[in-house]
């Protein structure tokens, strides 16, 4: 028999699995939970049809690695949901593919590095944001602080200093509302694109109910901010002294012969960096606080390690990472247990391809089950926050292929180094100075996340107490 499409639940004409997905997600609350349950039933390659689109859920480290490493699966979906954020075209880095993606990814990385990415300047940049954040927390010592959006502006600042050469005050109203917009856009749907992707004509019938109106308005506001930023750069551009990534890309635009780099492309690149680089780190940092306030022994062990290896007279540095092994294990455990990018970013088959004993038709979306990889059967007591699982008996860090929060292969995250540095410096700066506790009588904050494009923590409060 010729190879078939991977197995899955029964497919209805026209709608495919949309109705059963809708009912089950309502019941289970999380899409990744449904994919997990169905994958256990049908296998590590779960074949679905959502509307007219084939969607395969890829589970287990072997298949996730295989899909991430084969060129034929290097595409990104071109469904309606993905393209409304980029003028109806495949632009930028995150949702483009082919030679244009490759060129843009390499160019942007080159300029990010030139302007300080992964260098000492980057460390100075993150450290400055940590100092500003500590100042803000100093003003709130002893008070009840809702921490869910605590890191947003700091994280935009770190990225924005490279991209646009500026930072904002942590209380800046415009930047805070920009961050709120990004957060809201991440809650409208999930990485599969939802109804808007699979039944896009519904936007003409029930635009509000399926999130179309909201997404359109959000993107219009974010683009207004980006256009203004780019215009300011264009007016002030000094061709002898480009100051940041936007300047460098504007110069490249002026000098190019093939006209491939357009204004729209530049705007989408900026949007990509903001969307991919802010919610992911911010939500993981908030989960970190959630876990260390819940697990007071973990918090104490990190503080003892900081006291022993760094002391109180100087701030933490990235070079301390090699000695703060337990703290590193805490970061890895937070990235594992809270896996904010539950299904990575969807890949798309660029041609018909064989995978295992099945055939994946051209145009199929492939969602990588990263949450399941990190919280599935491989891990002992996966729901328990246990940093020791990342440590050998001798106290060294364990590397495992069952852990790939940033993906793998040519489409892997370009922000891994930055994200890990940010998380390390935020956590150590905060725990060096403060003890984190819950307000009197408050219940333990829930580890149950809120669903969306990335998972986030439910609202909770912390009291920051000065340690010395
Ligand atoms: C905890 C933080 C982060 C997590 C968990 C995370 C996770 C991921 C994952 C799973 C992917 C998809 C890999 C794939 O398609 O196979 C990805 C892609 C990407 N990430 Fe991150 N990321 C984080 C932070 C960042 C930061 C700080 C930046 C900004 C510099 C960033 C920029 C990107 C970009 C541009 C892509 C698309 C790459 C491409 O399609 O070629 N991410 N990330």
UniProtKB/TrEMBL annotation:
<keyword id="KW-0408">Iron</keyword>
<keyword id="KW-0732">Signal</keyword>
<dbReference type="GO" id="GO:0005506">
    <property type="term" value="F:iron ion binding"/>
</dbReference>
<dbReference type="GO" id="GO:0006805">
    <property type="term" value="P:xenobiotic metabolic process"/>
</dbReference>
<dbReference type="InterPro" id="IPR017972">
    <property type="entry name" value="Cyt_P450_CS"/>
</dbReference>
<dbReference type="GO" id="GO:0005737">
    <property type="term" value="C:cytoplasm"/>
</dbReference>
<comment type="similarity">
    <text>Belongs to the cytochrome P450 family.</text>
</comment>
<dbReference type="GO" id="GO:0020037">
    <property type="term" value="F:heme binding"/>
</dbReference>
<dbReference type="InterPro" id="IPR001128">
    <property type="entry name" value="Cyt_P450"/>
</dbReference>
<dbReference type="GO" id="GO:0006082">
    <property type="term" value="P:organic acid metabolic process"/>
</dbReference>
<feature type="binding site" description="axial binding residue">
    <location>
        <position position="413"/>
    </location>
    <ligand>
        <name>heme</name>
    </ligand>
</feature>
<dbReference type="InterPro" id="IPR036396">
    <property type="entry name" value="Cyt_P450_sf"/>
</dbReference>
<dbReference type="InterPro" id="IPR002401">
    <property type="entry name" value="Cyt_P450_E_grp-I"/>
</dbReference>
<protein>
    <recommendedName>
        <fullName>Cytochrome P450</fullName>
    </recommendedName>
</protein>
<dbReference type="GO" id="GO:0008395">
    <property type="term" value="F:steroid hydroxylase activity"/>
</dbReference>
<dbReference type="InterPro" id="IPR050182">
    <property type="entry name" value="Cytochrome_P450_fam2"/>
</dbReference>
<keyword id="KW-0479">Metal-binding</keyword>
<dbReference type="GO" id="GO:0016712">
    <property type="term" value="F:oxidoreductase activity, acting on paired donors, with incorporation or reduction of molecular oxygen, reduced flavin or flavoprotein as one donor, and incorporation of one atom of oxygen"/>
</dbReference>
<keyword id="KW-0503">Monooxygenase</keyword>
<keyword id="KW-0349">Heme</keyword>
<keyword id="KW-0560">Oxidoreductase</keyword>
<dbReference type="Pfam" id="PF00067">
    <property type="entry name" value="p450"/>
</dbReference>
